[in-house]
Amino acid sequence: MQSTAISFSPSISLPKKPHNPSSSASFCRFNPLSQPLRFGSLNGSTSRRINPIRCSADSSSSKLNPNGWISVPAPVPERQSEGVEVRATSLPDSAGEAPKSKPLMETVVLGSLFGLWYLFNIYFNIYNKQVLKAFPYPVTVTLAQFAVGSVLVILMWTLNLYKRPKISGAQLVAILPLAAVHTLGNLFTNMSLGKVSVSFTHTIKAMEPFFSVVLSAMFLGEFPTLWVLSSLVPIVGGVGLASMTEASFNWAGFWSAMASNLTNQSRNVLSKKFMVRKEESLDNITLFSIITIMSFFLLAPYAFFTEGVKFTPAFLEAAGMNVNQLYTRSFIAALCFHAYQQVSYMILQRVSPVTHSVGNCVKRVVVIVTSVLFFRTPVSPINGLGTGIALAGVFLYSRVKRIKAKAKTE
């Protein structure tokens, strides 16, 4: 793209010898002033003469300097120009493509993270259910998942894959309640998965918004609007309808899933209630890594006290279990458990909490459908209707929360 450089000066004198620059360029010929112009001062005592300005254009000539178009040669060095000079250089054709490529790349990365989040969650629920059916010790299974996660975190810090944080005592005290409820939430989820089907556990866990509203009102003083309360009606009704027609229903699995809802939402409330100072705050990935290690140390004494040492090869062989198969599935489930939660925190760093909750709702639908197909879980029409109503209520709740968030920002 060619551009024009224009020089204005109160007195211009053209050289007698033609100027021969080294580089060639094409330009047009025009003669805006056919006669010399004279300017006088206000009192008429002096005058200045300006010769006609000539710009010649000839594609075969070489009368432009390398910098672009010019109308006159540069002024003599002894005198500074009193005019204004405007120059524009050519821009590459791809200069306007950078702002477009960056958002596109961010969208691709975010979409890939959502896909990995769903994929890891599907594999975790399938392998975890298989392990719990053959090895009915949910506390030991949960401890193994925290152990694998802790090893991965330590390797990540040791190999400098992620910056190792410097934790103060005040931060550990603030994180301890979060780690406790995180431990209980995952433990109760595994207890429920060991008793009822995967689809029913996730249907009950769709009631998380209900517990979020109740706990926020009790401990944070955040009372819900009428629209939020209205969105909770289909959630509670759908879960109740699905529970009445669930083939694998039992109270232990039901109350374990409800306890998981309570503890998981308590974690969200505590994260606001026990927030550390802003200058000492941790990013989401680091916070999750620390919580994983703390959860392992919190659960280990309880696991050994209640279930004992049940994961040795001798015990598994005596119980008639396939040791290699159980270890392999347990390891894959633990890897997927840590991976999907790690990816979940990575997504939370890129999107708003409301968008994250919508994605979580879609993830629950995907997990329910895939588990029903994989395990061939019998689903009655009323059970499917109740599950659909509950999930629709969760989606409606996330949309209402989004409207509320927009109203606050405005």
From TrEMBL:
It is found in: Plastid, Chloroplast membrane. It is a multi-pass membrane protein. GO terms for biological process: phosphoenolpyruvate transport; triose phosphate transmembrane transport. The keyword Transit peptide applies. The chain crosses the membrane at residues 108-127, 134-157, 169-189, 210-236, 248-264, 285-305, 379-398. Residues 1-12 have a biased composition (Polar residues). InterPro entries: EmrE-like (IPR037185), Sugar_P_trans_dom (IPR004853), Tpt_PEP_transl (IPR004696), TPT_transporter (IPR050186). It holds the Pfam family TPT. GO terms for molecular function: phosphoenolpyruvate:phosphate antiporter activity; phosphoglycerate transmembrane transporter activity; triose-phosphate:phosphate antiporter activity. Its main location: plastid. It comes from the Eukaryota. Signal peptide: none annotated. This is Sugar phosphate transporter domain-containing protein. It comes from Solanum lycopersicum. The gene is LOC101252675.
